[in-house]
Design a protein that fits this description.
Strand content: 5-15%
Structural class: alpha+beta
Mean pLDDT: 79
Helix content: 25-40%
Radius of gyration: 23 Å
Number of helices: 4
């Protein structure tokens, strides 16, 4: 069912019958379910700025690349999230993906020598960039990501000691022969 355009709406945007504009409803759950571009009075309602945090809509935010690496015996898998993130949401993502790299990223020779160290250094660079930002206030009706525990307080981060101990043992035995 389409609603008629009464001449006061830009082409392509129409008011959905039975829905009041987003700014009039303060219920956060209802705000997340509605599409602000579908309201017609005065054109589409402005959304968050393009450089706002992708998770919470807060400002200031920085464009960062957060990486995770999984080393398999023969192959390597990479995951990169490149987006605008505030300091809280970005650090939460870095903690989660760095922990994943520490327990899954070392299980191949290429991963041990190149993949995991590269990923950890890149995440450290993104972490430092996000730490320079002031704390952001999330947009109305949105919440920031939960920081969780720091990386070194997460038990899975210590799984990395197994392949590192093996590599140390291997190098030591090769050098002492």
């Amino acid at each position: 069912m389409t609603t008629p355009n009464y001449g006061n709406t830009p082409p392509g945007s129409q008011f959905r019958a039975g829905h009041e504009p987003l700014a009039w409803n303060l219920d956060p759950a209802a705000q997340q379910q509605r599409d602000p571009s579908s309201y017609s009075v005065g054109g589409p309602m402005p959304g968050p700025p393009r450089d706002a945090c992708a998770v919470c809509g807060g400002l200031p935010a920085a464009h960062v690349d957060v990486r995770a690496h999984r080393g398999l015996v023969i192959r390597m898998q990479w995951e990169t999230i490149s987006d605008w993130l505030c300091s809280t949401c970005g650090i939460a993502l870095i903690r989660r993906m760095t922990t994943r790299t520490l327990w899954q990223g070392w299980w191949g020779v290429g991963s041990l020598l190149i993949g995991a160290p590269y990923t950890l250094v890149q995440n450290l660079r993104a972490y430092r960039r996000l730490r320079q930002l002031p704390l952001a206030t999330p947009a109305l009706g949105r919440a920031q990501a939960d920081l969780g525990k720091p990386v070194l307080e997460r038990p899975l981060a210590y799984v990395a000691l197994i392949p590192l101990a093996w590599a140390t043992w291997l190098v030591t035995n090769l050098l002492t022969r």
